[in-house]
Automatic annotation (TrEMBL):
Biased composition (Acidic residues): 1-11
UniProt entry tagged with the keyword DNA-binding: yes
Bias kind Basic and acidic residues: ranges: 12-22
Protein name: DNA-binding protein EGH21_13650
Biased composition (Low complexity): 23-41
HAMAP family: dsDNA_bind
Gene3D superfamilies reported for this sequence: PDCD5-like (1.10.8.140)
UniProt-listed PANTHER family: PROGRAMMED CELL DEATH PROTEIN 5
GO molecular function: DNA binding
Family note: Belongs to the PDCD5 family.
Keywords carried by this UniProt record: DNA-binding
Region (Disordered): 1-70
Amino acid sequence: MSGDPSEEELEELRKKKMEQLKEQQQGEGDGEAQQAAQEQAEAQKKAVLRQHLSDGARKRLNTVKMSKPQVGEQVEQQVVALAQSGRIQDQIDEEQMKELLSELTPDSKSFDIKRR
């Protein structure tokens, strides 16, 4: 043997490489489809929020999302669920958003610090 791979070994290596590339392409295709579905769901959620929230309520929700992202997401999901069930007749204004936020956020405990 001269150290050169035989034709059979080369062909086997080519087949393995082609199979790996096909698997990789299929995996990327699934990821792209999943990402597209997530983007579409996010766009639908934004459209529902835009339709059912007034400007003041939307600003308040964005402010909450900046400081507490989990609470903001929870409120968004609640508003979308209410809208889809038909329980929202007209737009939610800022006062109604305050009420919704106070219902969904647990009471924060206040601390009195006294200096001596």
